[in-house]
Amino acid sequence: MPQENAINELFDISGRVALVTGGRRGLGLAMAEGLARAGARLAVAAASRDCRDLRQKIQAAGGELEYFQVNLADRSQRSGLIEKVVERFGRLDILVNSAGIQHRQPAVEFDLGKWDEIISLMLTAVLELSQQAARVMMRQGGGRIINIASLASFQGGWTIPAYAAAKHGVAGLTKALANEWAEKNINVNAIAPGYFETDMCAAIINDPVREPKIRQRIPAGRWGKGEDLVGPLLFLAGDAARYIHGHVLVVDGGWMGT
């Protein structure tokens, strides 16, 4: 029977270097804080200059933070980002591709400029940053790439064609990258959150008609909270998941099972 310390080591990420994109607020912030509390050295990349809330939470967790203000929808700005993290910390062990935005509009009228922005930020940037990270991880002998997918990776949603297209792409890209990089000891997996209490879902949460219908369909009987993602994230980030490649882990309170 495995010794207790050996079991603990399966979930120990202390000292590892993690980059979370979109980690300034919402689910990204919850995951960044969770990684810091687990002992990871943390880099966060996001578009806003204001990272005060993030910095306070990471400091409260006793963590180390380097913040990069980057518009990840702009290829010129995301170019070389991983090397900047490596220059600061000496390595990169965990990449969490979490950055995302939302734009709701009927498909027949959908703004093509918004389409381009969302696809660039939520799909092309995932590939590009994963490429950058993989080059570093191959030199190191391995690493973890965790993409944030969605229920919209499996369903079409409503008035969110760009978001649904990007998230379907993330699920497929996760599997494609895993096929190529598993033998390099790089685990590429994804987490697909269900309905969570975030600013992105504010329009639905505040809808007196749709919100009760959604909540009643969730077997767990409630919307997810940011902390509900931390356990799955730490599992995929650690050695316990070393033989898991190309998996999309649904964290949805049972939604997809109904």
Would you mind describing this structure in some detail?
It contains ten helices and seven strands. Helix 7 links the parallel strand 5 and strand 6. The longest helix is centred in the middle third of the chain and has 29 residues. The N and C termini lie far apart (37 Å).
Task: Write down the secondary-structure element order.
Answer: HEHEHEHHEHEHEHHHE
Strand count, sense and barrel status of the largest sheet are: 7 strands, parallel
CATH-wise, what's the superfamily? Answer: NAD(P)-binding Rossmann-like Domain
What is the CATH class designation? Alpha Beta
Strand order of the largest sheet: 3-2-1-4-5-6-7
Query: What is the CATH topology descriptor?
Result: Rossmann fold
Shape: globular
Domain count: 1
Rg to the nearest angstrom?
18 Å
Mean pLDDT: 96
| Count of alpha and pi helical runs | 10
CATH-level-2 architecture: 3-Layer(aba) Sandwich
N→C terminal distance: 37 Å
